[in-house]
Amino acid sequence: MSQPECLYNLAEIDAALDSMAAQINADYADQLQPLLVLVLLKGALVTAGALLPKLTVPVEVDYLHASRYRDNSAADQLRWLAKPQTDLSGRDLLIVDDILDQGITLREVVKYCLECQASSVATAVLAHKQLPQPALVAADYLGLQVPDRYVYGFGMDNAERDRNAPGIFAL
Ligand code: IMP
Ligand code: MG
């Protein structure tokens, strides 16, 4: 059986999060109203937990829980498990997610936030999967590139296990 391959260790992930946070801190330095950070569960739990203490701008935190339908019948549909409880209208949002693959999840979540009259919607994603075709949306703040393989760890699951794996691993 093949061994999992460690693509990024914790120190490398931390360095990527440092540079994402530096960009976010610079971009929102003059922010008066707290930036509303929306954590996209479950995958972004660890990324958000590591990114938030690096932010120096005022923030509030809420979460949303959505996942892709994996059957082809509803390929572009998101299954919403929880919508944010905070009123999004007039707010500056930063959506945090674990991995950008085709971009369907982020595209739908951004669309929802704009429909809720958010003032601005930015996205921060730890990993970007290198697919042959570009993702439907680009992340505003991006940490690391990963190959077109199934990856897990640092919040990302391997059939619901291994979200605690200390790094990003490829099967
Ligand atoms: P997208 O909608 O195609 O961009 O898929 C993004 C979502 O699918 C992410 O938020 C993850 O939850 C999940 N996902 C996509 N690729 C992987 C992977 O390689 N490992 C773990 N989760 C993944
Ligand atoms: Mg996810």
Note the topology:
Blueprint: E1 5-9, H1 10-27, E2 35-41, H2 45-51, E3 59-68, E4 78-82, E5 92-100, H3 104-115, E6 120-129, E7 141-146, E8 151-152, E9 167-170
Parallel strand pairs: 2-3, 2-5, 5-6, 6-7
Antiparallel strand pairs: 1-9, 3-4, 8-9
Bound molecules: inosinic acid and magnesium ion.
Inosinic acid binds at residues 43, 68, 97-105, 150-152, 156-157.
Shape: globular
> Count of helical segments?
3
Give me the Rg, rounded: 16 Å
Q: What is the helix/strand order?
A: EHEHEEEHEEEE
* Uncertain segments: none
Average pLDDT works out at 94
Kindly list the characteristics that best describe this protein.
171 residues; alpha/beta; 6-stranded mixed sheet; 3-stranded antiparallel sheet; 3 helices; globular; binds inosinic acid; binds magnesium ion
Characterization of the model:
The structure is a single chain. The strands form two sheets. Strands 4-3-2-5-6-7 form a six-stranded mixed sheet. It contains three helices and nine strands, in the order E-H-E-H-E-E-E-H-E-E-E-E. The structure holds inosinic acid and magnesium ion. Inosinic acid (IMP) binds next to strand 5, helix 3 and strand 8.
Task: Quickly describe the structure.
The protein is an alpha/beta fold and 171 residues long.
